[in-house]
Amino acid sequence: MINNVVLVGRLTRDPDLRYTSNGSAVATFNLAVNRNFTNQSGEREADFVNCVIWRKPAETLANYAKKGTLLGVVGRIQTRNYENQQGQRVYVTEVVCENFQLLESKNASNQRQQQTGGFDNNAGGFNDFSQNNQNTQSSFGQSSSNDMPNFDRDNSNPFGNSSSIDISDDDLPF
User: Fold this and answer.
1) 64, 14 contact by CB (below 8 A)
2) Alpha-carbon span 88 to 83, nearest angstrom
3) Is 171 helix (H, G, I), strand (E, B) or coil?
4) Does the predicted model carry a pTM greater than 0.85?
5) Exposed e or buried b for every residue in 55-82, given b needs 16+ CB within 10 A?
6) Which of 7, 19, 58, 79: CA 20 to 30 A from 157?
7) Are 69 and 10 in contact, with CB atoms under 8 Å apart?
8) Is the separation of the CB atoms in 61 and 100 below 8 Å?
9) pLDDT digits (tens, 9 = 90+) for 57-115
């Protein structure tokens, strides 16, 4: 059986770091992941995924990631249940993260946090953070008005350039 999850999204709040009774660190957080399509009114919706991470990675995440941080996580889906104080059975589905990656530079993160903007509850996604970044270059080499990576699909043909490449057979590795 395969149970792999890969998510890229933004933290909706600072990670909540706690320690178990035997001293293991555990951090819980919520990741807002934009959908690949827009709804009928043209707005992009987001899914909010509950995540948990354990031990040293949990401490590292809590130290370096804050609300709004662009984060990539790798893990697995887990479902658990417990009985709450009212005696009701509660089912929880969450992503148990094995690893994470910060996907924006500290400078970009600090710039974003200094600007007005943030999470927009009405639109289901993040506001545009482009107030002070009109002539910045994104980390992917594309001009961007908000210094955020553009993960939209690029429909241009990289081989559409009609000029030929001058290369000899001796330069080819095969």
Assistant:
1) no
2) 5
3) helix
4) no
5) eebbbbbbeebeebbbbebebeeeeeee
6) 7
7) yes
8) yes
9) 999 999 988 888 899 999 999 999 999 999 999 999 999 999 999 888 777 777 777 77
